[in-house]
Design a protein that fits this description.
The chain is mainly α. The protein has one domain. The longest helix is centred in the middle third of the chain and has 26 residues. The protein is globular and about 50 Å long. InterPro entries: EamA_dom, EmrE-like.
């Protein structure tokens, strides 16, 4: 539980670090995942070298597809922060449990109960209220386009759900470190190809940008999502899902203190409704 608390605090810093950076979103995502991969590689080489043998060809393909979905998640999420408020972006990205529930019902034939349906409906109503409020009042981002930013955040949530759904069965057969390493490597290569396709510069950044790249890898990457994956082996998944709802709250508070970005009343109210819907959905599927 202590590690989970550290992880939630770490992932809450992600949006702030992205906002502080002047690098393109895809470049930020690329270096975050690349540096995180390099940081965990020694653990594989020293303690988990033999675990790579658990990968069959089909498993390897699944892991690569999972990494590609994670790449789109990061790219969409980071880009959304340029167009909408931190509060809206982080809350909408955190809505991935809703899409996991829908995807599990459609593709894994899992039953959706009335509480899950109610949670999804509540969260969607909150998303609509949040987006409408930001569109009418204007998000706290200069030159913002909140509807576009919110749509990117929702895309990020959908891709995070794909990442969870596709990788869930594979994690039952493959240990954490080799799984994360293969997925992160595939994610890094996908982001590299996207950056090349968009003709984005991967070099020429100053010390400040490299510090932010490293901070994203160490904070949200290593002490955030990687620790969350570790905590899943020791804490009930429902507890982890509910704990992650602290990220939008933490990110919003940090944005208020460090960026002087105060969310509007409609954004706050809509965000609370979204979080309530996510909580109900997560609790119903526990």
């Amino acid at each position: 539980m202590a590690a989970l608390g550290v992880a939630v605090l770490a992932v809450s810093t992600s949006a702030i670090l992205v906002r502080w950076s002047d690098a393109p979103a895809v470049v930020l995502a690329f270096y975050r995942v690349l540096l995180t991969t390099l940081l965990i590689s020694p653990f594989l080489l020293t303690r988990h070298r033999g675990d790579l043998g658990a990968f069959r060809r089909r498993d390897l393909l699944v892991a690569v597809l999972t990494g590609a979905a994670l790449a789109v998640h990061f790219a969409a999420y980071f880009e959304s922060l340029a167009w909408t408020s931190v509060a809206a972006s982080v809350t909408l990205v955190q809505a991935q449990p809703l899409f996991v529930a829908v995807g599990a019902a459609l593709f894994l034939r899992e039953r959706i109960g009335p509480r899950t349906v109610a949670g999804i409906a509540i969260a969607i109503a909150g998303m609509a209220a949040m987006s409408a409020g930001e569109f009418l009042a204007g998000a706290a981002v200069e030159g913002s386009h909140p509807l576009y930013g919110n749509a990117l955040a929702v895309l990020g949530a959908v891709m995070a759900a794909v990442y969870v759904l596709v990788g869930r069965s594979l994690r039952q057969r493959v240990a954490l470190v080799p799984y994360v390493l293969v997925v992160y490597t595939a994610c890094t290569l996908t982001l590299f190809l996207i950056a090349i396709a968009q003709d984005l510069p991967l070099a020429g950044y100053g010390r400040r940008e490299w510090f932010l790249f490293l901070a994203l890898a160490v904070g949200p990457g290593l002490f955030g999502h990687t620790v969350v994956n570790w905590a899943l082996g020791h804490v009930d998944s429902a507890v982890v899902s509910v704990s992650l709802l602290g990220e939008p709250i933490g990110a919003t508070i940090l944005a208020l203190v460090l960026l002087a970005e105060a969310p509007g009343a409609t954004t706050v109210a809509g965000g609370v409704v979204v979080l309530a819907g996510i909580y109900l959905t997560s609790a119903a599927r526990a």
